[in-house]
Amino acid sequence: MEIGGSKESPEKPKKGKSKTPRKPPKDSVLKQKSPAEFFAENKNIAGFDNPGKCLYTTVRELVENSLDSAESISELPVVEITIEEIEKSKFNSMIGLVNRERVDEELYDDYESTKARVKRLAKEAKNQEVQAKNAAHGKKTKEHTPTKVLKGRGETSFYRVTCKDNGRGMPHDDIPNMFGRVLSGTKYGLKQTRGKFGLGAKMALIWSKMSTGLPIEISSSMKGQNYISFCRLDIDIHRNMPHIHLHEKQQNKERWHGAEIQVIIEGNWTTYRSKILHYMRQMAVITPYAQFIFKFISDTSDKNMTIKFARRTDVMPPVPIETKHHPSSVDLLLIKRLRAETSKQNLLQFLQHEFVNIGKSHAERLIGEMGPDFSPKMDVKSLTDQQIVRIHQLFRQAKFDDPSGECLSPAGEYNLRLGIIKELHPELVATHSGSAQVFEGHPFIVEAGVSLGGKDVKLGLNIFRFANRIPLLFEQGADVVTRTAIKRINWSSYKINQSQDKIGIFVSIVSTKIPFKGTGKEYIGDDINEIASAVKSAIQQCCIQLKTKIVKKIQAREQQERKRNLSKYIPNATGAVYDVLKEMAQSHVSKKKRFEGEDAELLSKVSARLITKDTLSEKLAQHVEQVDYEMALEYATQSGVSEEPRENIFIQALEMNHQFMDFTNPIFVFRLIS
């Protein structure tokens, strides 16, 4: 074919490519995602990585919300957490799905071919044959249990998680938004809280909608209310709005107050069982004033369990109070927001009342330093963007007093010690609470405890980490507490064997802003010098206390050993001295003038059997006891260990006339020990 005098041969399509011509790209369409949709697609940010982790995180979030709720009204927390396993057939009936038997077996992931089955049975038979042969020769072998490995999600199942508390409860009209709207909550002030965004319960609802499609159920009642608010709802992911199924008021005959939340999710109890129980145990350590009742219910009776973590004390930490921002910790956006929300009219009042550690005179000096465009009585709402930048620059460069730790609520040495003793039953325990320190304008307090021995404690270092009284179980290796305990503490200098002793290390950090690393918020980095130094100092103070106790135990053990060695020779010494005294008494009968005074009286008592071998043995034992105690007291004095005397010590006055005794004479030996 010729076009315009030129010849063109049609191009043959290349192999492997489509003959259909490509469509021209359309204009890009701008899309917008709701917060709920974002977190549903990136659920790992909130700790919902896999079904097992989702079950663990759901339990954790509900328990921590319950504790915050009870502590906010100074009520001793009582938290009941129940995990009920739901079989697939029961779950299908709950959602109205009819169970269907398999038709094409090869279609399923757990299908086992005939060849694979023969191979597995042959392997099991061979293992049994080896075990029988070893048993015949008296050898012990590890039993091989036939296991069938499933691919994919493995043993994931469905679970009903229920958490009930005796806390504040929730207002009836606020419940839908508190659970059905992401990024809406009451934890956005500058305050020490277990959670920060109020995202946990909402993520459990999002995971429930993604894995089971079932709504969440909430029952709540506040103090003094004669009704219970009941709400069944799920969340509209794309619109970030609650979808309410039922919202009503019910009778509250028992005058109960608190909240009960029930959610059905997909999870994996088998792989995360130890993590959940470990979390509950650590929570009982850091909150000994709370009572936890944990239940696991399954159709298989041998899996059922009920664990009660009893309350040990009724002393609660003070309720943390909301504080104002420190000037060195703010940024431009925060200054603009505070300017828009403040009720103060002029700049002087704004600086005084919206920030901590800025008094009137200090504020006037700051305004004078800002330049001629600023005045104390200027309208704060009229600040331009350039003026706000100037304020921010001055805040970064000026000197301010550090914020106090009055807004923080640490567990306290008393509660930390009680929690450790209650759950671990150690032989020795020491605790220390440091003073408030500052990192980037945020105050923080480090508390630590170190224990030796205990129940269910492994040899070596057992590290327990807490942040704002929340146990941290994952990503331990990179945490500042782990690295400090392993690399920066010389345990041998405190008479502690790092590899052979059972050492428990408990470190709790509380702050208005915990500097977590990573999206999972499971560890605190080792690159913050202020926190690393405070952690090291707190652990060292505990070790110093333990060293004193360990030295006393060593002294007591050495004293017992020394006393045992001395007492071992009492019978021989008693027999030898008594035989000599007896011979001298017999000689005294024939030579009356050789001994006079007390010596003659002593030998007369020996001759009259008023002093016997038993008497001499008793006196020697008393002397050993006295000498041993005096040696121990002298050793303790030289070692710098202060200890109150166990009994009164009377020291005789020095006399001018000194009498020298012949220790080769058995009579003087007897006088010495008597």
TrEMBL record:
Chain's gene name: TOP6B
EC annotation from Swiss-Prot or TrEMBL: 5.6.2.2
Binding-site residues, ATP: N65, D165, T186, K187, G195, K196, F197, G198, L199, G200, A201, K202, K521
Name of this chain's protein: DNA topoisomerase 6 subunit B
Catalysis performed (reactions): ATP-dependent breakage, passage and rejoining of double-stranded DNA
Quaternary structure, from the entry: Homodimer. Heterotetramer of two TOP6A and two TOP6B subunits.
Claim: DNA-binding is one of the keywords in the record: yes
Stated role: Component of the DNA topoisomerase VI involved in chromatin organization and progression of endoreduplication cycles. Relaxes both positive and negative superturns and exhibits a strong decatenase activity. The B subunit binds ATP.
Main localization of the protein described in the UniProt heading: nucleus
Subcellular location: Nucleus
GO biological process: DNA topological change
Gene Ontology CC, one term: nucleus
Gene3D superfamilies according to UniProt: 1.10.8.50, 3.30.230.10, Histidine kinase-like ATPase, C-terminal domain
GO terms of molecular function: ATP binding; DNA binding; DNA topoisomerase type II (double strand cut, ATP-hydrolyzing) activity; identical protein binding
Keywords recorded for this protein, A-Z: ATP-binding, Coiled coil, DNA-binding, Isomerase, Nucleotide-binding, Nucleus, Topoisomerase
Family to which the UniProt record says this protein belongs: Belongs to the TOP6B family.
Span list, region Disordered: 1-34
Record's compositionally biased regions (Basic residues): 14-23
Organism taxonomic ancestry: Eukaryota, Viridiplantae, Streptophyta, Embryophyta, Tracheophyta
InterPro entries per UniProt: HATPase_C_sf, Ribosomal_Su5_D2-typ_SF, Ribosomal_uS13-like_H2TH, Ribsml_uS5_D2-typ_fold_subgr, TopoVI_B, TopoVI_B_transducer
Residues of the DNA topoisomerase VI subunit B transducer domain: 403-562
Coiled-coil stretches: 108-135
